[in-house]
Write a structure and sequence with these properties.
12 strands, Immunoglobulin-like, mainly beta, 4-stranded antiparallel sheet, 4-stranded mixed sheet
């Protein structure tokens, strides 16, 4: 599995302006991860959050719904992500939050890869992106 962080325009962010990010999760064939926001008995749901940053605050991530999957052991139907998925994240630069020329934004992605037979230990990915400020 791979995780990537991409920013949409603008190239530089002024106070109060939104910055739209996209977290792309590339899940290997035959594997899945549990969808965000689920109360799953057998695994850890996907979660994406902005690392603490004095210049930016984050709206809640916009996760896809996921695909239904019946668990082999319990028969419980859960929602999972497979293949490539995108999660949208909108950040806003805080008004009056310093006069830096640039900053590094970082998000953490927590998920648990599983296949039809087993689940691996939960993974945490740290994704960082430099952002110019105006």
């Amino acid at each position: 599995m791979r995780a990537e962080l991409h920013a949409a325009a603008p190239a530089a962010v002024a106070p109060g302006e939104p910055l739209r990010l996209k977290v792309r999760l590339r899940i290997d064939p035959g594997w899945h991860i549990y969808a965000a926001g689920l109360a799953v008995l057998a695994g850890i749901p996907t979660a994406i959050e902005l690392e603490p940053n004095e210049l930016f605050e984050s709206d809640p991530p916009l996760y896809p719904e996921g695909e239904p999957l019946a668990g082999a052991a319990t028969g419980e139907v859960v929602r999972v992500y497979a293949g490539d998925i995108d999660v949208a994240l909108t950040l806003r630069r805080r008004a009056g939050a310093g006069a830096a020329a640039s900053t590094e934004l970082a998000v953490r992605v927590r998920c648990q890869p599983c296949d039809d037979q087993r689940c691996l230990a939960p993974r945490v990915y740290r994704l960082a992106l430099p952002v110019a400020l105006t």
